[in-house]
Amino acid sequence: MPDAIEKPAPLELSRYCVPFTPFEKPLGSSRVCLVSTAGVYARGDAPLVASGDNTFRVIPGGATSKDLAYADEHYPHDCVDADLNCVFPLDRLHELAAEKVIAGVAESHFSMGFTQQLAAIRSTTVPLLARAVDKVRPDAVVLTGG
Amino acid sequence: MLGIPTVGITVEPEETRQARPPRALAPRAREGASGLAFSVGRTMGRAGDAALQRKILKDALELLTSPPRPGEVQVVDYA
Prior knowledge:
The structure holds 2 protein chains of 2 kinds.
Chain A: E1 31-36, E2 40-42, E3 56-60, E4 68-70, H1 78-82, H2 90-98, E5 104-105, E6 108-112, H3 118-136, E7 140-144
Parallel strand pairs in A: 1-5, 1-6, 1-7
Antiparallel strand pairs in A: 2-4, 3-6
Chain B: E1 6-9, H1 13-18, E2 24-29, H2 50-62, E3 74-78
Parallel strand pairs in B: 1-2, 2-3
């Protein structure tokens, strides 16, 4: 009688896996999206709660820094008070598009704010944010913190 | 969901390395660069220094087309 076939062990991804997606377009043909945790939001939109917020805000692609504000209590503000590009370089992205370094900016950008609820953002916020970015389908995303 | 290529700009390279980023650039002030510091709240260096901010952003975007070095953070000096 043949030996019983052993069930293969469940596949476990290595903790050392890097979530890498190849970039296959010329940069000059690409639309770029900004995603940040700096607490940025469009003026007129409800601000993120500076003391802690598990949501994110959608920023219109065509916005400039004049159309934006930030809600934060956790990083020094001397630079961003003078120039929001210090943490969310959207004006610079528009300029790179005008110089044809990139084709343009994505139709939306995104910002989270401060939170210490890591389990909650991992299980809820990040999947929602990933789906929102996926709906936009930029060619690349630039990530910034605060 | 099909992946989307990303590149991070970080002022905390050690913490970022632990997250195993696909691509990341850590700007650093060149020795002797007066008035320039990269830290939380000033990821892009100096307020109003559009040329510097554009250079950092462009260098980060160029990591998308550079030979891949997943898991590494590229430290680049700026003046």
